[in-house]
Amino acid sequence: MGYFRDNIEKVKGYEPGFQPKGGEVLKLNTNENPYPPSPKVLEALSAIKPEQLRLYPDPIGSEFRRAAAEVNGVSPDFVICCNGGDDLLTMAFRAFCDEKRAAAYPVPTYSLYPVLAKLQSCEAIEVPFDSEFNLPTGLINTGAALTIVCNPNAPSGSFISAGELASLADEVNGILLIDEAYVDFAEENCTGLVKDFDNVIILRSMSKGYSLAGMRFGYGLACPDLIAGLMKVKDSYNVDAVAIAAATAAIKDQGYFKENVEKVKKDREILTAQLRALKFEAPKSDSNFVLAENKGCKASEIYDKLVQRDIYIRYFALAGLENKLRITVGTSEQNDKLILALKEILSE
């Protein structure tokens, strides 16, 4: 048609995980939490008044900022609300990148990063991980305006220590954005870096540990000067009144949150052991999913045979992931159903 900018015409948009229809499917492909959100969330939703829907919401989500600040041990001016973690990524690309200011990140990783780079017409410098997903030393010298490290990484589930990322923040010239969408399931996080470095932004999601994927809410942590700059870039009302209420109730209920996270972590270890017993290579994961490979059977074939059984996991036909499957940790019953199906498939 010729109406779009050249880079929009050429880019292949981000492809979310398949959303199967029907209630009989087993859905382990998009890393949702298998447990419901806190009952406090449902109470907050039931208390929503018509006036809250008639009026515009608080444009900066002050109530949530206060709650998130308390949980993370910072002041509210260290927090920015966003419409899911992807919103913060979009802000960062808009704020720091253009034709002369590149973005850099290790690969393979979250496949939205290169899409956002193309939309912003900025160079994407992709630095390969090694086979064990260690932080690439080449990430230090890219000269990128924006360096992104997904930690725990998607889709590998691998984790890089806060100390290593502190060293990276100290050495890069531009912004270091640490995408901690899955950090709720890890043993440590990088919250402290935003107090020590004025070039670090941390992304957090309410979709995973807090079971609010359907609400689309996330937040960022950074020094107040960076937050103030990102406020200029965000949409005018980027989070709605209902989502603010739900997310605030969720993050305040730390007891429920921690209980659910521990259940997922326990089932993650059991699922990993079950996969290894079936001759899958399944490295340690610090997220709510496991990346697995069975060298005796093609990943694409396993994926297709699971779909025939109404079981959905994630298969990526991407470099470095050609024969790997990403499996979301479900409940113990869901995981057992998957393992039973895999036993059948591998014995065919």
Overview of the molecule:
It contains 13 helices and twelve strands. With 348 residues, the chain is of the alpha/beta class. 47% of the residues are buried. It has two domains: 111 residues, Aspartate Aminotransferase, domain 1; 214 residues, Type I PLP-dependent aspartate aminotransferase-like (Major domain) (Aspartate Aminotransferase, domain 2, 3-Layer(aba) Sandwich). The longest helix is centred in the last third of the chain and has 24 residues.
Morphology call = globular
CATH-defined superfamily of the largest domain: Type I PLP-dependent aspartate aminotransferase-like (Major domain)
Radius of gyration: 20 Å
Output the number of helix runs: 13
Q: What is the fold named in CATH at topology level of the largest domain?
A: Aspartate Aminotransferase, domain 2
Distance between the termini: 49 Å
Mean pLDDT: 95
List key phrases describing it.
348 residues; alpha/beta; Aspartate Aminotransferase, domain 1; Aspartate Aminotransferase, domain 2; three-stranded antiparallel sheet; 13 helices; 12 strands; globular
Short note summarizing the structure:
This protein has 348 residues and is α/β, with parallel strands linked by helices. The protein has helices spanning 6-10, 39-46, 50-54, 62-72, 85-96, 112-119, 162-171, 193-196, 224-233, 241-252, 254-277, 299-308, 332-346; strands at residues 26-27, 79-82, 103-107, 124-128, 146-150, 175-179, 200-205, 218-221, 289-292, 311-312, 314-315, 325-328. Helix content is 39%, strand content 14%.
